[in-house]
Every structure is written in C-alpha cells, then in structure tokens.
Amino acid sequence: MERRPLRVTAISIVLVVIAVLSLSLSAGGDAPTPSYHYLVVIDPGHGGKDPGAIGIGGLKEKNITLPIAQMVYIKSLNDPQLRVVLTRRDDEYSYPTDRILAANKLGADLYVSIHANAFSSASVSGVETLVNETQSESSASYHLAEMLQQHVVSATGAVDRGVKWAPLFIGRAKMPAALVETGFVTNPYEARLLQSISYQSKIADAILAAIRKFLKER
Ligand SMILES: [Zn+2]
C-alpha cells in the first residue's frame, strides 16, 4: 500500500513528459510536416471499470499496462519512421474488440496489446506472448510475438514462458497482432518490479526494439 504514492508520482511524471513533448512538437512554424512509414497501435490492456488482474496488495493490471504503453509512445517520438497511437491515454474503459476495430480503421501496420498476468500460485512468474489461436507458426503475428517475447525476456531476465496460442480479441485484427504478458502481478517479486519506472522502461524499450526489428524484417 505504501507504494501507491510512488506509482501515482511515476504516472504523473510520465504524463508531464508527454505534455512537454507534445508542446515542443507543436511549437514553432518551422516544424517538418509529420511523415512516417509505419503506424503502430499500442494497447494498454484493460482500463476504467475493468481493472484486469488483481495482484499482490491489490495491484491492478490496468495500472501497469498504461505507464508501459505511455513509455513506448514517448520513446517512439524520436523515431521518424514510427507513429505510435495508444488505444487509451487514461484510466478509461473500451471494449477490446472496439480497440481492434479502431486499429483496422486506421489501417495500422501492427498491433501490440500490453498486459500483465495472474495465477493462483504466487510462485509462478515470467513473460509470455500470445497470438490468436488461428495464427500459424509461419504467420506474421506469430513472428511478431516471437520478437516481442525474445526482446522482453532478454531485457528483463524474466522466466521465458514462450509464445502461446489462445482465443483472443486480437483475432479480429487485419494487421499482425500480438499480446505480451509482461509479468505476474500475483508474484511478489514481479509485482514489485512491474511497479518500478526503471522496469517499466526496460519493458517499453524491449517492445519498441521488437517492433523495429519486426518491421525491418518484413
Ligand atoms: Zn490482461
């Protein structure tokens, strides 16, 4: 519970950074016309009335996924090739399928949904990446999932739980799509790490590196 103020502060810092960056981007008439090669949709899982998994000390999954996604967004701003769009910028709810349909409408090049895991046993930990059950091992979505899994595992040193198939809302995506489970909110060690800015930042860097590698190899 005593960690809550720290988390709130962390989120506030991220929001201030976003505000400053937005201002600096919009300031000045000599800013270059925005151009990018790839439109990437990043989905901070859950939000609003849907907290996602509940972990140690009441830790809510939705409060882990948002700062990580915001960091991916901020870190992407100095890459002229990428335009990152978040499916939510705040603690707000929308249907997962609506998020995918919005990405389809935008004509996004890829879709990454960020989540955190939970299990009945506190000893279970690690990172896994999910693709929709209809995706074959040779599909672009599976390849994207492999990239995400490799990068997040090597950046965090977390247990490698591999790429898995599941019946998922991202099955509606018209672009390569994967869902990364960044750790277990029910594992005491990972619950603590997932709330730290430095660990969230490592995960965000890894997600961005995986996206860049995937797009480069296409
Ligand atoms: Zn989730």
Walkthrough of the structure:
- This protein has a single domain, classed as Zn-dependent exopeptidases (Aminopeptidase, 3-Layer(aba) Sandwich).
- The longest helix is centred in the N-terminal third of the chain and has 23 residues.
- The chain contains six helices and six strands.
- The N and C termini lie far apart (45 Å).
- β1, α2 and β2 form a beta-alpha-beta unit.
- The chain has a six-stranded mixed beta sheet with strand order 2-1-3-6-4-5, with helices on both faces.
- By secondary structure, the chain is α/β, with parallel strands linked by helices.
- The N terminus is likely disordered.
- The protein binds zinc ion.
- The site of zinc ion has 5 residues, from loops.
- Zinc ion binds next to loops.
- From the 3D coordinates, which CATH architecture would you assign? 3-Layer(aba) Sandwich
Distance between the amino and carboxyl termini: 45 Å
Could you say which structural class the secondary elements and strand pairing correspond to? alpha/beta
What top-tier CATH class fits best? Alpha Beta
The CATH superfamily is identified as Zn-dependent exopeptidases
* Coarse morphology: globular
The set of bound ligands, ions and cofactors reads:
zinc ion
Low-confidence stretches: 1-9, 11-29
